């Protein structure tokens, strides 16, 4: 059974989670530059394993998945997915479909 949980978290906690947990396969990178986003932790089960992702609510009210990578010089670089979700319900539908295997795990344009 799959479950999704939403929890508002602060930027420092988000950075810790980004370093600790794997990202979902729907992520496609673009430069992430917001200075103080509203970030949510999203947890879901897939294939009997719990996965964790982070989601930002933009000022426009849409949601984007985010991740963090280290640049070659060791600085943290935040990445924001290209695809937006109009609301939490749409995001939850996508996650449920990922859990059921309905979507390809590595979508390409």
From TrEMBL:
Protein name: Uncharacterized protein
